[in-house]
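Moderator note: this is an archived Q&A kept for reference. The question asked for a predicted structure of one protein chain; the sequence and the answer are reproduced below.
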Amino acid sequence: MRVGLIGAGRIGALHAATLHHLPEVDSLVIADADAGLARSVAESLRAGDAGRAEAADSVEAALSAGLDGVVIAAATPAHAELIHLALDAKLPVFCEKPVAPDVAGTREVIAHVAASGAPLHVGFQRRFDAGYLALREAVRSGRLGWLHTLRAVTADAAPPPAAYLPASGGIFRDCAVHDFDAIRFVTGRDIAEVYATGANKGEACFAGAGDVDTAAAALTLDDGTLATVTCTRYNGQGYDVRLEACGSTGSMVAGLDDKTPLRSAEPGTTWPGGSPYRAFMDRFRDAYVAELKAFTELAAGRIDSPCTADEALEALLAADAADLSRRERRPVRIEEVR
């Protein structure tokens, strides 16, 4: 299989290395707005395995290079345009979330996918994490009884560069959107209402971008189950991502292991005691590999999309509702932003 990769930055370089080592991928064509960066990533891969990675001079050149599928890992503002170009070329597409910065743009992508006949796989990697998959099975099988509470956490060890914030969409669309999708994925339920708030106690750049550095949201699912989502850019202990599901007969948590950046206050308790996760690439390394392997299966026509643009839209709607709730200090039903 010949796969194109558009975007050779931090996540793009990770995906390039992953694709390069998948046995399903025979060759990789890399493109970036910075052609020199694309060449650098291709050269670094060729140093370990000659002949399987090459750089294209432009996105258009990559898309016309006889590809079987394309992975989009470029900057967020470019996602929708790149998806449309790939769909015009009738290529199966993997794109990191979001597919577009807003609901209208996401709906345009959904319509184009339907018209083109080419599949789209949106990158919510928690769907491929072993813990989240085990939690989903426990919830869906009824082993936890009926759910009453879910608690989701996304905590970055350190804030992103200030220049990243204005185009990020804000903390709910950039960070908590993963939790919103994971809650829907694990439970099989829709989010009906969101009540959110946020605070700034860190650098002034967050407030300057109209954003917050720490946020919390209370969700009501369509069956009455309650969920909380908390996220922050300042979790100095390490990178912390968890989801707890509490039911009438049992409880389970994804993301709690010896590298979880927590320390107990109870005397004599030393667990977790491992070196804490520092970034998403460390925490979700195996999930990223499984995710891209699934994309090769999708591109080969052997499976349906593991995460469609319609599902990405539902997570985005929850993020939009949370942002509106934070700004207006009131509960917001999903139908209000749909």
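Archived answer notes: The two ends are 38 Å apart (CA to CA).
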